[in-house]
Amino acid sequence: MKLKLESNGVSLKLATTDKNKNVKFKTIVKAYELVTGDELEITENVPKIDEKSRERQIQHNYQEYDRPEYREPVKTDVACPYCGLTCIKNIPFGYRFMNCPQCRGKIFLNSATDNFGEKDEHGFYYKATEIFKDDKDKYEDDALLEQMKAGQPNE
Asked: What is the pTM (predicted TM-score) of this model?
């Protein structure tokens, strides 16, 4: 696309190197303003929608879901990695671990879906199947792994 603007002895040429691409409308308006010295107001023709339609559109676009309140009991699928107990428990929403009802081992509460706070097709918010490791445990495991790699005896 090629465009040439002239006004009062001022000349400006706009061109695209690719014949299939066009110059954006706002760029043409800015070029016109530069050549003529006039300021133009660009208004977009956006249809007006009522507040309810706008809220519906936002909910549809973001696919919002009902997230439970903090500490509200939610359905959790439990499979204890320590003792093998399998059961369904109600655990307060927002917790990151629970204690096994049988052996009292700490179990990590993993989200049942990709979106934290959304229930899966069976109504579970959490899957409790992994050992919970706090920062101290992670550090001790890392130190032990380094000792094993180096061939050092365990202290």
From this structure: 0.49
Alpha-carbon span 106 to 88, nearest angstrom: 16
Reported as a single tens digit per residue, the pLDDT across 134-155 is 777 666 777 777 888 887 665 5
3-state secondary structure of 128: strand
What does DSSP say about strands 97-99 and 106-111: parallel, antiparallel, or unpaired?
A: antiparallel
User: For 96-142, how does the pLDDT look when each residue is reduced to its tens digit (9 = 90+)?
Assistant: 999 999 999 999 999 999 888 899 999 999 999 999 987 776 667 77
Judge contact between 12 and 31, C-beta under 8 A: yes
Q: Among 45, 127, 112, 34, which Cα is nearest to 79's?
A: 127
Q: How far, in Å, CA of 42 to CA of 94, rounded?
A: 48
**Closest among 9, 11, 13 to 1, alpha carbons compared:** 13
Nearest to 33 by CA among 5, 13, 59: 5
CA distance 124 to 109: 11
Where on the phi/psi map is residue 151: left (φ > 0), alpha (ψ -120 to 50), or beta?
A: left
Cα-based distances in Å from 116 to 65, 68, 70, 135: 11, 10, 12, 22
